[in-house]
Amino acid sequence: MRFLHTGDWHLGRTIRGRSRAGEFHDVLAEVHDIAVQERVDAMLVCGDIFDSASPGAGAERLLFEALREFVGSGIEVLLLGGNHDSVTRLEALGRLSELVGVRVRAEVVRHDEGGIVTFEKGGERAQVAAIPWILERETLSALEILEPEHAARQTYHEKVATIYNHMVDGFEDGAVHLLAGHIFVDNALVAKVDGSERRLHIDQAYGISAASLPSAPQYLALGHVHQPQVLTDAPAPTAYCGSLLQLDFGERGQQKVVRIVDATPNRPVQHRAVALTKGRPLVELAGSLDEVVAQADHHPGAFIRAVLRVDAPERGLAERLREALPDVVDVRLDYDRDVVDAEEAEFSTLGPEDLFVRYYRAQHQREPSPELLALFRELMEEATVLA
Ligand SMILES: [Mn+2]
Question: Which end of the chain lies in a sparser environment, N or C, as judged by fewer CB atoms within 10 Å?
Answer without folding.
Answer: C
